[in-house]
């Protein structure tokens, strides 16, 4: 969490993104577990590993220049290509951490790597950095994709104001089966009231800070 906060502090408008997304990830995974999905994967230990590692999903942004992180307007193609590198950079950082620990089977670090590298992949294969699709994408990364986009939509950024929760949920629904895993979206929407509470609390906190 300390490392995630260091990275996030460089971005002037991400607020509590690392904490918000971890909260959404927990909601989704717990709901999927309750529904009996992926019973061989969705153990309590797995869920804790993913939730604990979720704040590291953007750790690769430590290699993105400040001016790019905080640009108020749309990124150029060249700038976006550089921004996309944060996924690969994050994987390299986690790989370095894995090399330094005795327990190379650590579920926490292994899930952290999956999250950092693959959270911008899309269900239809049009994401980055690898262009993999469907269940080729690790489950944790498919869950993070929904949590990450939802929080980005409802939150204020250097280039936009936050969207109302209703609009953000509508966008998530519209991109089911293209950007997002339909089962993950279904689980998220079934936790709408809890997600709304997290988003509203974050919005109040952000307003006080500004």
CATH architecture: Orthogonal Bundle
The CATH superfamily appears as Hypothetical protein af1432
Residues in helices, as a percent range: 55-70%
Tally of contiguous helical segments: 10
The CATH topology comes to Hypothetical protein af1432
- Are there runs of 5+ residues with pLDDT below 50, and where? none
Computed over alpha carbons, the radius of gyration is 16 Å
Strand content: under 5%
- Mean of residue pLDDT? 89
Q: What is the makeup of the main sheet? A: none
What distance separates the N and C termini? 23 Å
Total strands:
0
What is the N-to-C succession of helices and strands? HHHHHHHHHH
Short descriptors:
Hypothetical protein af1432, globular, 210 residues, mainly alpha
